[in-house]
Specification:
Length: 153
Amino acid sequence: MILKNSNNINSEIEFFPIKKDGDRYYVELHENIPNGFPSPAEDFSGRRISLDERFLSKPESTFIGRAKGLSNYHFILPGDFMIIRADLEAKHGDLAVVYIPGEGISAKKVDMDRNCLTPLNKDFPEISFEPEDIVEVRGVVKAIFRDIESLNF
């Protein structure tokens, strides 16, 4: 399997443009928030982080796609947003957005050792390739986020 970067983005994933207007916003970063009862002795760090610096440092080669389907479930849910960098070359172990002939665009884990693309959901099959097959890579997934309102808990 040979990975080849490609700019050819089609409409099989819902894409959102990145707009840059010069403003940068910073929010408080509170690390190590427990998912149980917080310790009253723990203090918040008070550090500040810019989400655009952290996730959109290369706006000219960054795009956001909304996930659909369950092939990467539990890690990525339908409706999650994926921040994807088109300027990065996919390598073994990366979660990449790829074009699969006959199937379209999909996010899959790259397994160069076995020449396949692997869904994160083990209930879905791997997609195998011959060593000389070319797989078009649209980008590498760098982060995911979701609207908490979309969860029914």
